[in-house]
Amino acid sequence: MAHQTAAILVIGNEVLSGRTREANAYYAAGKFFERGCKLSEVAIIPDEREAIISTLNRLREQYDAVITSGGIGPTHDDITMESIAAAFDVELIEHSFIVQAMTDHFGAEGLNEGRRRMTRVPQGSKLIRCEKTIAPGARIGNVYILAGVPYIFESQLDSILDQFGDRPYQRIEIEVELPESLFAKALTAIQADFDDVEIGSYPGRCGPDPCGKICLSSQDTERLNEAVKTVNTMLENIAS
Question: What does pTM read for this prediction?
Answer without folding.
Answer: 0.92
